[in-house]
Amino acid sequence: xxxxxxxxxxxxxxxxxxxxxxxxxxxxxxxxxxxxxxxxxxxxxxxxxxxxxxxxxxxxxxxxxxxxxxxxxxxxxxxxxxxxxxxxxxxxxxxxxxxxxxxxxxxxxxxxxxxxxxxxxxxxxxxxxxxxxxxxxxxxxxxxxxxxxxxxxxxxxxxxxxxxxxxxxxxxxxxxxxxxxxxxxxxxxxxxxxxxxxxxxxxxxxxxxxxxxxxxxxxxxxxxxx
Length: 226
Ligand code: C5P
Fold this sequence. Notes:
Layout: E1 5-9, H1 16-27, E2 30-33, H2 34-48, H3 54-57, H4 60-71, E3 75-78, E4 81-84, E5 87-88, H5 90-94, H6 96-105, H7 109-120, E6 128-132, H8 135-139, E7 145-150, H9 153-166, H10 173-189, E8 202-205, H11 211-223
Parallel strand pairs: 1-6, 1-7, 2-6, 7-8
Antiparallel strand pairs: 3-4, 4-5
Helix pairs in contact: 1-11, 2-6, 4-7, 9-10
């Protein structure tokens, strides 16, 4: 049969990455952080001098160049580190600016198409946990378990705030909340692969759950799948 996949989709800062990594570790499965791929395209575009502002993206030539860039992304994952060519981009990837750039380039169909095969390549035995926006709807529609993770925008902004402050990065709640809402809106309203729960997704609101409780819920669903 097919290699099993657990999809974890949801909005920005819902805790998908943490949950997916914990579930993957518990099951000994591979992990796909699909957002990192879009962040990498954003960084690579910057490096190559390809503009990613809204107006430039509407130009078909720019969209094609971004698609070509995404198809030949010189990316390597080495343990905890991510390399783009000869540059360790592990930290640059996590910056808010990389997330915003990712959100812009991810609306380009040529980019989504280019990353499709790359993502399918992560589906290897004994199994995969994949987190993103369209894992259950577009990339792995046959996945036996699809989780749609949510939390209120305020909760998510608060978590992001705590994260940044603990890393010594100054941040204002109002700015974070506004950025989050802008990103949610863009991700949910785009024409190609918008963020939405798959029809057969199970909804998990982790507003009042800690990580361990969320992990247990997903593992329960996984064990109980038909
Ligand atoms: O999850 P993360 O914040 O790293 O994703 C960054 C951006 O990449 C998202 O805001 C979204 O626009 C885009 N993305 C996507 N499809 C995915 C994963 C991420 O469009 N599967």
